Amino acid sequence: MREKLVDGFRNNIVVEEGLMAHGRGEAFDYLIGEKTTKEALNAMRSAVALMLLARRPVISVNGNVASLCPKEMIELAEVTSASIEVNLFYRTLGRELAIEKLLASHGAKNVLGIGSRSSATIPELMSERRRVDPDGIYAADVVLVPLEDGDRAEALVKMGKKVIAIDLNPLSRTAQKAHVTIVDNVVRAMPRMVRIAKQMKGMKRKELQKIVEFDNAKNLNASLKIILNGLVK
Ligand code: PTJ
Questions:
Q1: CA of 205 to the centre of ligand 1 (A)
Q2: How many domains does the chain fold into?
Q3: Distance separating alpha carbons of residues 182 and 222, to the nearest angstrom
Q4: I need a labelling partner for 164 at 20 to 30 A (CA). Which of 3, 74, 145, 174 fits?
């Protein structure tokens, strides 16, 4: 993972802050035992059901996600019929184009959010992440935001979108504000979600609606307990 991120950094895909964010994630990953927990799996099931039920699901991609798991992320988009949008906190056109090229080399066809395509604005958000694609995040009903900063997760919720987060820190603002939070490493969560999506794809909407039902606060507390127990042990 570190090598992929350093490569991404050298190729203008990952930013310095992304390397730091990874270090924070690693610390939490050690504490949850570097494995997918039952709680994370429950959250993934609810998240995938939400995506399959959505009218316009979108996966938001930043530098870290593009470097760590491009293939699996594209596969998840395909299975759930989601759009892929590049949306960067530290936005530069050069980085957007580098990420678009990387995703295209893994088979992504129509990557949203590049350059002037991001002409819509998320209200109340000051960072560069406020600029979004009118055909992507702006119009989405469900947005998957792996490895996110808290402000935008909160702003998307305020816009009435269902937000799914993948974040190793159950206490982060993103984790706390999202409707469904998967406390797991993005490199384990993405392929697992692909498998779950393939299994669920044939299910009736009613069955999926039952799976969507999910208590995020309860699940986050359970994830936090795993971390605390890890520390005690
Ligand atoms: O590529 P950009 O310009 O959009 O910038 C991306 C970063 C990651 C720098 C930006 O979104 C950012 O600053 O994010 P934060 O606020 O540092 O939040 C990142 C969160 O992801 C933290 O809570 C980390 O614990 C968590 N995290 C880090 N690595 C992983 C992770 N969660 C899941 N899987 C990981 N591999």
A1: 33
A2: 1
A3: 12
A4: 3
